[in-house]
Design a protein that fits this description.
By secondary structure, the protein is mainly alpha-helical. It is 78% helix and 3% strand. It contains twelve helices and two strands, in the order H-H-H-H-H-H-E-E-H-H-H-H-H-H. It has a two-stranded antiparallel ribbon with strand order 1-2. It is globular.
Amino acid sequence: MTAEDYYDYNETDLVCSNNNVSVFSLVFLPTIYSIVFIVGFVGNALVLCVLVKYHQRSNVTDVCLFNLALSDLLFLISLPFWAHYAAVSDWIFGSFMCHAVTGFYMLGFYGSVFFMILMTLDRYSVIVHAHNSLFSKYRSVRASIAVAMFMWALSLGASLPTIIFSQVINDSNVLMCKEEYPEETFLLLFSYIEMNLLGLIIPLSVMVLCYSRIIPILMAMKSQKRHKAVKLVLVLVIVFFLFWTPYNIVLFMKFLRQFGYMASCQWEENLNMATQWVETLAFSHCCLNPIIYAFVGQKFRNSILKIFKQWFPICFGRCSIIVSEISERRSSMYSNSSVVSSTKIV
């Protein structure tokens, strides 16, 4: 189920008026999609620059973070096309771009899910099976790259049905890019189930099981390095599910609607309006991963500052001088105050 499905609102045999939803989407969606695209593209591009430039000794986590940022970028590439589509309610980019943009959308979504699962399993193997040589043997960079390629193959396989059945349809001289499944098949229902299973239920189950074993072990450990690594992965996973779970819930309600539940026009309008909000919430998740890296990882912040100093030497050169002067003043004031306090004690 992709973004284009929400611009075709007659999902049942009822003829329902969705003028409120259409007017709302004409202004709301293009604006939000544009903001998410700009912020997310800049942030994830910086993540890729940091990982390529300053991480000479890559590990499994770095490979996963790299591919996670790449997944977000693929997802973000589709947003300008959906923004234009929502603004003019007409697909002008042709049949090939309908398949391509849908492919970017689906590959980005499933790529994010699968690489978060891979990061969780990696943390699980490192912490729960720390003394097992079999797990440490297969944690080399080459092995992690091979696993990453396998994850991309899985993402492509999960995305193929949606990509294949997405096509441009002429409806009353209005071109629509949407999924068009053969009649009297279960492919449409399968797409709903696939999104819910692969996008929420299976990854959530895997992560709950893994972290239920990881957290008790961490509570008994004193290694700050491992704590930070697990903290980063855990925050990424929690944020992902907070932003994508409402989307999957609404998608499941649309799945139930295919069986005749919630078949009134009021329910259709409510579901379509809810879709606008949860879809926007889910899409904005692409902007958050770089922010999470910045808040959680000190090394990432330092690497970003190095890149900014190289790209904008005048601005950030002056800023670094000002920061160093402030820190020197603070240290001198602290030393003076300590001398005064010591004399008072004496």
